[in-house]
Amino acid sequence: MKATIDIRCENGVWGELRITNDGDKAARITNPGDYRPTQGWEFSREAYQIAVLRSFHFLEMTVRAEDGSVVEPSDDIVTRADHLVGLPVELEPGAELRINVPLHEFYDLKRNVDYSLALTYGDDSISVSASTQIRCSVRGLK
User: What is the pTM for the complete model shown?
Assistant: First the structure.
């Protein structure tokens, strides 16, 4: 399994984690689910999905500023419901699993500033990690 991150600076800053089975036989990885926001949720559906994955400790996100310091995520984005975890997803050789992360909802990112992003997805049985650089000049960032 391998993981990559694509950054999109459109309608905010998005990191798309792509997990690909680059092996020659099927492989299983943690099911990201399709969790629906609870009543009163004030953020995007994608932010809810990420909040659930983080609450299960299936997704770790680290953003660092140019000087290497960690940019702390918002404490405001948390789920208030318990969800059932689905069975692992089986990826056939060459198949991909994609997870969209609305970074602009979790982090106070500034325009035209360089950041690094590291994402780790999975559980104790299997996990994948990827990292990339971020620099966006989109409106909506400070």
Answer: 0.91
| Rounded mean pLDDT, 53-82 | 90
Please write the tens of the pLDDT for every residue from 93-128.
999 999 999 999 999 999 889 999 999 999 999 999
CA distances from 135 to 9, 68, 116, 121, 132 (A): 8, 15, 9, 23, 10
Burial (0-12, 13-18, 19+ Cβ within 10 Å), 129 = middle
Q: Taking a C-beta distance cutoff of 8 angstroms, is the pair 129, 3 a contact?
A: yes
Local structure of 43: helix, strand or coil: coil
